[in-house]
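Section 3.1 - Work completed
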Amino acid sequence: MSRAFVKDQDDDFVDDLPDRPISTHPNDVTEEGLALIEAALAAARSALGDAQTAEDRAAAARARRDLRYWTARHASARVVPPPTDTTEVRFGARVTIVRDDGREQTFRIVGEDEADPARGTISHVSPLARALFGKAVGDVVSVGKGEAEIREIA
């Protein structure tokens, strides 16, 4: 077979992957959230160095994309101090709700990059957090298809 009909795999390789989408919401973070961003930024720098040393173009492209993302998130991060007033739900508060089916759940409202509902943290831009902001103990909020009562704010 003639070489003219064989496509060289490396000719298709993109040196830089498309950027990860960056939220248009304010990048409010807790102190812990800023530390997570800084750790992710350091990991991306390390991954890029490792990929360049190994001459792994695909890994380098992924690392450059992550480095761009975490650099932007670090530059826009705004640390919000923990709330001192627990009379109403604010950023950084730990809120316990009881859903209308009887389930009790506790969440801390944090920045987008640090949110992990399985670990009890939700993003400040999530529908649940938005429904809770400004509410007090005893208030009922719409959650999904049901309702929930705020039991505790810490």
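Second construct:
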Amino acid sequence: MIAAAAHALVTGRKVAGLYDHAAGRHLRVAAEARGRHLQGYDGDRDARFGGTLPELHDMGTKTAVHMVVEGSETRGYDRGSCGHFTARVTEGLVQLYDHDLGTWFAFDVQVA
């Protein structure tokens, strides 16, 4: 959810899917942003997510994500996992850093 939201909010392009390199699989997730407002759907979890920055809501976990856009990056806090993150966004890739794990994750982005 965070990778799709970050890409849609930074680039303004619709996300139609992600490839998670760590898991080695495609994720059925879509996201669309209009200004500071985001709506999305995670097909793997059958859960909607979205809201208006800086608070995004994950209807699947019933938690929120605080996210701030700073140029081509987003930073925030996931209340569900109680962890901070940084996402670096390029045209076709999101690199997500989990501060608690000290680990980078990479997602190729399919745009609509």
